[in-house]
Batch of 2 targets.
Target 1
Amino acid sequence: MSAKANPYADTRDMYPVHAMFRREYALLPALVRAVAAKDAERAQVVAGHVRLVNLILHHHHAAEDATLWPALLKRAPREADSVIRLLEGQHGVLDVLLDEVSARLDGWTDGADSGDGEALATVLQRLAAALYEHMGLEEKLALPLVERHVFATEWEEMVAAGAADIPPEIGPVLVGMLMYEGGLEVVPPEMRDVLGEIAPKAYAGYCEGVHGTPTPPRSDQVGLGLPYVGVIAGRE
């Protein structure tokens, strides 16, 4: 349906984003635990990946806080107030966990100490669990409100704001990360000729270095209630 026929936001593109976060965060604890003690080189690779997905999540939530929630509170305060308060509170909890992850990453990458690695993996599990809860509630409670009260132009502004400060050199990997489960539809039509082929290859190559395979488990294969599986079982 065109924006002219329906001026309100089409939130379907949020689900591939959430699938990406579910997949990437569920895999992180086992990736950290698979790093052999004192393997500082491998620790740097995994730490770089953790920092990347944390950066993407931070910008995603900052865009929601700046654009999405104020629009809902302005247009539907009675419906949205308690929902937004809950989701903003969850953003705060996630920010605290992200800060703890960042602090523990610095200590772990200094020498890949196994004790530091286990402490980091434990915090990453807490972060994944909190993120799963948050995204589930956002899908259930917030997105239906967005579809009734937020204009498509505002939704597009939020999406653009979330990507604005992402370093351009990681753009193809990020798009490939989204396309891995979301397909070509997650790419704006005007960029499909450029990124439709490049981005999946960029992400596959990136996954070879991080996960040891170009095809890591998908979001329906990992997560809460399932083992936090690591593709790489260990290193010599």
Target 2
Amino acid sequence: MRLVSASVPSPTKPALAVRHIAALPRAWHLGSLDAPTVAATWCAAFLGAVGTTHGQALWSPIAFLSLSTWLCYVGDRVLDARSAPAPSLRARHRFYGTLWRDRRAALVATMALAGISSGLLGLKALSLQLLAEYAALTALSVIYFGWVHSGAERSARFVAKELVVGVIFAVGCALPAWTASALPHALLPAAALFGALCWLNCVAIERWETHGALSQQTHPSTRWAGRHLTALLSVGAVASVLLNVHARAHGSAQILGPCLAAAFALLAVLERLHLRLSAEALRILADVALLTPLAWWLVAGLIR
């Protein structure tokens, strides 16, 4: 009697291509390229709002901020992977935990190269004022994250990590424009709204990754914001529209208001859909929602 085994059809080339393309957002996230992309995008948006649209004054701060942001996020995820209990680890932490165990030399060398490149770029291409401001922000960040990873933060949580991360991120993105602007205080409303957007982004991720069940160890402000997330995002969108109306009335740049309003709205849509999506998909889309300036530039380029 002859035995015939059924052959399993191999994936077609189009199917493989689709699968590889679908894997790109996950690789973008696991490689910690999401936060630097958002930082670079908004740094460029703020600089564009004050008239810096080309040359070293635009690209040097963006490159410096991108490298610094990547280093910060990679360091944070490595420390989380080494110190946090296994059940609380997400895919991004497990990814760096594996790299730390199996490819430590390559990871450390890559981080060292990024750190050296960032330092040289800061010394050679940034103004003394901007370099000093970034040095102060970096020092504050290192002190705070050192405190977080020491374990003291869990027993004395006097400030929400989500709020601190959001504020530090927003300040880092706005600093180059603040330094370059002849009227830096005019950026304050947009910078404040962007800080609120970054904070609510962190709150949303924390809420979605815990399936809405924020623990009692979570800071009270984060639990409160999680309960009122849709309302807060709606307020942010309306405030951003009003910011745009004010900008149009005074003849100033209009990119920040519409992009902020769209980002708040996209996060609100994700909040409505969060039960239908995986935690990792939501984590990736939460950063994609912050890339609204890219859509603005694309539409502007098509119109021209």
